Design the sequence.
């Protein structure tokens, strides 16, 4: 048995012990997996993909696994490779967005000219998009405070028609702006992220041939983080579920749906899980946190029905909760973190990268950063300095291949490069292919010399491939050059400056640093200790969250924050903020009261 | 079973005989054409894209593969392109998922594959060399590869093939393909192999063999004493894998080599058709698979479609409804998927060595029952005569020019027209397809006389490959549609059927004596309607004047007499004594009537009362009839008997054919 088979068997043995995970793994019908925090959903998904491809689905058919982010897709690919997944046709692993482009629009849009989808797809840059939106606002006399671009985009996605019974009150001003914006966008012959998704949804909903082709390629479709994906994907799935024989496996947690600003609400996953043709499986064992934290997170959520999450590790461990009341302003809270929280944790043996400090917004992150600097505490700001786009992922692949050419394939590196060139107007044919291949091979091999530092290596590759030049007039990756600027900036910054090629994938992760993050951005992360600042009513939940829907989302944000912790949880508030007396946040109070009760 | 994909369109540019052809095909396609017109090259063009047995080396073409109208084509940068469109594939999920990227039309589902052989240019625009690419759909970067070819391919059976060798070849034989599909359990075969070995070994226990064994062993040791230190007799190892390949097909208890070649061909084609069938729905399911599938069968479809064979295995029932068939197909495609696609079969000259009656019966079966797409090239009128009318493709060449291709795929006929034409072609053994040109005539008189008149003119029709087709009516429309679609030149000879309007009624069978009555010609009216209905001329192009109208129709190949054929013949020659005597002589020789009747006939003819003469020929007293009269006249007639419109028709059709040369 080789290494990969061993890894697969080992993982399999592991999930066999968890009946719920094992049920999900074996389920061969439409399934919605409601997976609580730390419940091992990624393991279940990856093993399930392996099982389907080795036992259930015969070539040339395959499957699609849709993720929320490029990063998640990359993580899936990595794990599947470790489990021994072989390259094979018709297996799609990627974001909903790239699925819509590569599997729906480029394959089918030309067959249905009645949709007027501008082909080939030209993707609008963020800058141009902002300008377009600006013009829409001017023409309709809408002020900046009345409507943001995000709100308009969210409205565009919520507004799509289909089978879902979920109703979300519409925002008329956003709708009006969306209408004008879409007309302008169409006239410009560009598409944006939302337009791509909307076009693809229409093709799937209306065209039987598209559905049948997708069904033929993908007898199984698996979706991760369903709660974050919004209405268009939901309608795509409902349409395919009704009109094809494909089987669906959706994984997510309605309680972790906190991207309402993008049009993502928990209702869609709940609706899916309640369909009579869908089997609902809950994953209730939490392999991250101890039972106290789990219980606290349930209190945080304030659910009408108990989630009954149980700790799968850390059996008898007790959690530590701290409720700190400061006198005035945020600054006192920041100082408290520096002078007490961090020393306490370090003393208790918690490594510094196992601590996260969660604040309300990026301004608070900046202020906190300054205080940490003064206190001599190294920190890492978990905001997206650069994105792991296809191009960045390719650079990472190049680095990995240079380090270990046995585990990584040059062929797939070249395939991306070839398609990149074609999509940027460089046609390579016949024997040119081998010449181009040799060129890439040589320049990558040569890039190893004299470029020990990661930043130098990246610059060398960018220069010799002429990548940035090609990206200047790109219609495919309009924001990529700026993203590469950001990547280089990060790679150059103090703590990453000494990085070698091996550490590429560690770029943008904490190294001997405490992590600071907004509450929203903490999703998907985990730490031994979490520190929640600004726990005053009006700040969290925000005074702007006036509707019931928004308040409920704030509860879910609090749930997400608390469930990041494995064992320690600090809640900090001030009596006075900017001269105003502040009541404790309802979240602070709930947890405080629960903790008192518990201790009795 | 579900119908398999077929090539619906072939477009060839600059390849071998073909400068440019673009032709529609049907799922059963018969390709006809003279020798050397390029039938094999037509198939070869398809093979460049779809044949998995061709190597990449063979897909690199040479100078001589370019259309021969070009001098040094590879210096000029001429491009060869072959485009195939394929329909009816999307019910098969393997094909759909593998090839949906090649789709050019969603409804009806159509995909396109393109082979292109083109020059690689240096920076300065000069030609460095040639390369080929095969791509799917409209995106040239979307390569069609051997993996795609695994799921959609063509199998060509050559005309002069060594069928015996292929049937016997254990690896390539269609029989072994069929056996393999059953996926017989290895343990069963192992048990059989063990038994065979044990049976074989019994021979060793014969005393005679023991003695022989001892003698060999001793003698061997006389020469040399090494290890292995004994020599023994043994039987062959029985290889499990080879048990199946040793199977033979017996015809009437004899092995293939003993049978006549004709039957061997039928056997080969039978096996081949079975081997390329869509196997998504198995005809046989063993007990293990049946139980497994039953677990997934919520709708209970297996019970309705399979019956037990009494040994725990299950056999597909016959005569399932089409609804049930398609449900079963979906079910099997979903739960018992097979890693196969579809094969299109091409057979060159399938008539080889087959008795005409057998040709008709086996290809009728192929056309009607086989779900696979089949392309045949043939010279056989027997096969052509049973080919569905819309499934004929005609390859032809004008002079030394490029080969053209026309097909009847888009032939549009009413149901009656279709039935009439099909019956005619079947009854006449498909000869209409094989003429270089066709003279369509309306009756037996022309059928007998036209070839003779042509001989007399020194233009023997047979030598020129011109067929005279008597359609026994004036219903020319379906014939000219078919011939028009196939690009076969034709001319029509029909009666004028002169009439006068007397008391507001049409009166026929009159001679034109300038009576002052309104006159007309039924023949002109029929042809006028025909040319308008068939878009040969538009209403406004047709002049009022009968003479001008007649001239125009002749330009288009429609030759109209004045009265009726016999009357035109007699009317044209009665003033000439010698000609008249020939006709009178024939009448006298054939009639059952007496001398008085014979004298009356001669008198009528002499005064030019040709209608009266015709009535006598057809009368019950003479018992001659038009057919017999024409038959006899054919032996004796001279050029003076030839009506003008027939002469013109012969000149016209000969010119059409001569333009070919």
Sequence:
């Amino acid at each position: 048995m080789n290494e990969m088979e061993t890894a697969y068997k080992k993982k399999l043995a592991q999930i066999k012990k968890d009946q719920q995970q094992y049920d999900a793994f074996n389920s061969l019908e439409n399934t919605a997996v409601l997976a609580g925090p730390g419940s091992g959903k990624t393991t279940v998904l990856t093993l399930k993909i392996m099982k389907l491809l080795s036992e259930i689905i015969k070539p040339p058919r395959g499957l699609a696994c849709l993720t929320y982010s490029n990063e998640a897709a990359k993580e899936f690919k990595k794990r599947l490779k470790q489990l021994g997944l072989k390259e094979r046709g018709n297996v799609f692993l990627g974001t909903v967005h790239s699925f819509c482009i590569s599997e729906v629009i480029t394959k089918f849009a030309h067959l249905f000219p009645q949709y007027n989808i501008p082909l080939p797809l030209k993707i609008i840059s963020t800058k141009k998009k902002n300008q377009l939106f600006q013009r829409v606002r001017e023409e309709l006399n809408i002020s900046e405070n009345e409507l943001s671009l995000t709100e308009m985009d969210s409205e565009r996605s919520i507004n799509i028609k289909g089978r879902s019974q979920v109703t979300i009150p519409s925002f008329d001003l956003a709708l009006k702006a969306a209408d004008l914006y879409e007309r302008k966008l169409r006239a410009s012959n560009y598409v944006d992220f939302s337009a791509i998704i909307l076009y693809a949804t229409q093709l799937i909903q209306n065209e039987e041939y598209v559905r049948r082709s997708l069904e033929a390629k993908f007898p199984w479709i698996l979706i991760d983080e369903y709660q974050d994906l919004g209405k268009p994907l939901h309608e795509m799935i409902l349409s395919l579920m009704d009109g094809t024989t494909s089987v669906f496996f959706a994984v997510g947690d309605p309680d972790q749906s906190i991207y309402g600003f993008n049009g993502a609400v928990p209702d869609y996953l709940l609706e899916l899980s309640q369909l009579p043709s869908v089997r609902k499986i809950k994953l209730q064992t939490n392999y991250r946190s101890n039972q106290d934290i789990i219980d606290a997170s349930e209190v945080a959520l304030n659910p009408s029905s108990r989630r009954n999450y149980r700790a799968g590790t850390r059996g008898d461990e007790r959690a530590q909760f701290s409720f700190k009341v400061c006198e005035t302003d945020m600054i006192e809270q920041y100082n408290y973190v520096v002078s007490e929280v961090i020393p306490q944790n370090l003393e208790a043996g918690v490594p510094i990268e196992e601590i996260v400090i969660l604040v309300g917004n990026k301004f608070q992150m900046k202020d906190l950063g300054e205080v940490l600097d003064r206190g001599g505490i190294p920190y890492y700001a978990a905001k997206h300095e650069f994105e792991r786009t296809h191009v960045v992922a390719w650079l990472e692949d190049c680095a990995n291949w240079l380090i270990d050419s046995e585990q990584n394939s040059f062929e797939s590196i070249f395939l991306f490069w070839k398609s990149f060139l074609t999509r940027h107007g460089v046609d390579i044919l016949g024997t040119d292919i081998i010449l181009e291949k040799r060129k890439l091979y040589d320049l990558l091999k040569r890039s190893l010399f004299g470029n020990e530092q990661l930043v130098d290596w990246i610059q060398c590759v960018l220069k010799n491939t002429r990548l940035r030049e090609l990206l200047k007039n790109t219609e495919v990756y309009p924001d990529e050059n700026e993203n590469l600027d950001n990547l280089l900036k990060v790679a150059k910054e103090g703590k990453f400056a000494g990085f070698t090629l091996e550490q590429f994938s560690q770029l943008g992760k904490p190294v001997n640093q405490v992590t600071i993050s907004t509450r929203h951005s903490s999703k998907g992360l985990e730490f031994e200790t979490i520190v929640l600042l600004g726990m005053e009513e009006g700040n969290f939940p925000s005074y702007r969250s006036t509707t019931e829907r928004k308040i409920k989302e704030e509860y879910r944000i609090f749930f997400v924050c608390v469930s990041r912790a494995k064992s320690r949880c600090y809640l900090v508030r001030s009596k006075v903020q900017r001269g105003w007396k502040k009541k404790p946040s309802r979240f602070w109070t709930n947890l405080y009261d629960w903790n008192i009760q518990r201790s009795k | 079973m579900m119908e398999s994909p077929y090539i619906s369109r072939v477009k060839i540019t600059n390849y071998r005989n073909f400068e440019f052809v673009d032709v529609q095909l049907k799922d059963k396609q018969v390709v006809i054409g003279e020798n050397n017109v390029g039938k094999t090259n037509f198939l070869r063009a398809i093979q460049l894209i779809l044949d998995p047995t061709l190597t990449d080396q063979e897909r690199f073409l040479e100078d001589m593969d370019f259309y021969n109208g070009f001098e040094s084509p590879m210096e000029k940068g001429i491009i060869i392109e072959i485009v195939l469109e394929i329909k009816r594939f999307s019910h098969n999920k393997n094909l759909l998922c593998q090839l949906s990227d090649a789709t050019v039309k969603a409804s009806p589902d159509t995909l396109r594959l393109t082979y292109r052989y083109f020059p690689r240019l240096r920076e300065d625009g000069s030609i460095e060399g040639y390369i080929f690419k095969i791509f799917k759909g409209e995106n040239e970067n979307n390569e069609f590869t051997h993996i795609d070819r695994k799921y959609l391919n063509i199998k060509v059976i050559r005309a002069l093939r060594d069928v015996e060798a292929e049937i016997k070849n254990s690896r390539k034989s269609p029989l072994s393909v069929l056996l393999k599909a059953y996926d017989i359990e290895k343990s069963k075969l192992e048990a059989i192999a063990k038994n065979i070995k044990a049976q074989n070994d019994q021979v060793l226990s014969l005393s005679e063999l023991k003695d022989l064994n001892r003698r060999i062993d001793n003698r061997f040791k006389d020469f040399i004493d090494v290890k292995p230190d004994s020599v023994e007799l043994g039987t062959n190892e029985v290889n499990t894998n080879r048990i199946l390949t040793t199977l033979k097909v017996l015809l009437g208890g004899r092995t293939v080599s003993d049978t006549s070649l004709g039957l061997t061909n039928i056997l080969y084609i039978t096996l081949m058709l079975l081997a390329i069938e869509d196997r998504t729905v198995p005809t046989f399911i063993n007990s293990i698979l049946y139980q497994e599938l039953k677990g997934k069968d919520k709708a209970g479809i297996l019970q309705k479609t399979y019956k037990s064979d009494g040994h725990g295995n299950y056999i597909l029932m016959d005569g399932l409804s089409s609804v049930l068939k398609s449900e079963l197909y979906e079910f099997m495609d979903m739960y018992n998927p097979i890693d196969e696609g579809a094969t299109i079969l091409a057979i060159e000259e399938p008539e080889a060595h087959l008795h005409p009656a057998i040709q008709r019966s086996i290809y009728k079966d192929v056309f009607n029952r086989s779900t696979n797409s089949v392309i045949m090239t043939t010279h056989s009128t027997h096969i052509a005569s049973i080919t569905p009318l819309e499934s004929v493709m005609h390859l032809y060449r004008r002079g030394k020019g490029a080969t053209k291709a026309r097909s009847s795929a888009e032939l549009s006929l009413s149901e009656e027209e279709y039935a009439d034409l099909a019956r005619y072609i079947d009854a006449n053994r498909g000869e209409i397809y094989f003429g270089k040109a066709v003279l369509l005539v309306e009756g037996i008189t022309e059928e007998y006389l036209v070839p003779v008149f042509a001989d007399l003119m020194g233009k023997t029709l047979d030598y020129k490959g011109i067929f005279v087709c008597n359609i026994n009516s004036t219903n020319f429309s379906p014939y000219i549609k078919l011939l028009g679609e196939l690009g076969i030149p034709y001319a029509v000879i029909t009666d004028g059927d002169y009439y006068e309007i007397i008391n507001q009624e049409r009166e026929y069978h009159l001679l034109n004596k300038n009576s002052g009555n309104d006159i007309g010609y039924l023949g002109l009216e029929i042809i006028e309607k025909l040319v308008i209905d068939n878009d040969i001329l538009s209403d406004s192009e047709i002049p009022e004047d009968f003479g001008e109208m007649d001239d125009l129709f002749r330009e288009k190949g429609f030759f109209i007499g004045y009265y009726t054929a016999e009357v035109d013949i007699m009317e044209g020659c009665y003033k000439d004594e010698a000609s008249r005597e020939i006709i009178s002589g024939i009448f006298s020789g054939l009639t059952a009537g007496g001398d008085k009747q014979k004298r009356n006939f001669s008198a009528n003819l002499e005064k030019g009362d040709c209608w009266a003469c015709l009535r006598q020929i057809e009368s019950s007293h003479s018992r001659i009839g038009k057919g017999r009269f024409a038959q006899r006249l054919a032996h004796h007639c001279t050029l003076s008997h030839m009506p003008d419109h027939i002469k013109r028709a012969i000149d016209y059709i000969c010119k059409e054919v001569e333009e070919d040369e």
